Amino acid sequence: MTSFLTEIDHVAIAVNDLDAAIAWYEDVFGATVVHREVVESDGVSEALIKVADSYIQLLTPTRPDSPVGKYLEKKGEGLHHVGYRVDDCAAALESVKASGGRVIDEAPRPGSRGTMVAFVHPKASFGTLIELVEDPS
Prior knowledge:
Blueprint: E1 5-14, H1 18-29, E2 33-39, E3 44-51, E4 54-61, H2 67-75, E5 78-86, H3 89-98, E6 109-110, E7 116-120, E8 130-134
Parallel strand pairs: 1-4, 5-8
Antiparallel strand pairs: 1-5, 2-3, 3-4, 6-7, 7-8
């Protein structure tokens, strides 16, 4: 079987205060934000910090009932998920489903930066929420 994963797209960190988290990364690591976006469908505001060919994705909820809002309420700040790049999100998602894996998204959907994304449930992946990311650029 050929791997669908081509590289790590991002590591997502859930935070209560996005501006404070950005300032910390700037002060401690000299990092700069290369992209900011509100993803209304997910109820989050994100800031991306470039690290080599990947990103640190800082996430904060825009509403308390969003998945990230619920995560912060239950678990507090910290690692939320890992995003893996794939060439074909639909094919990768079908592969997960065909292997009996549990998915959150039944079909790919629009993500930030013009990507297509789908999430794999952490109960199917050893406790880690996984995002499959197809970047058309």
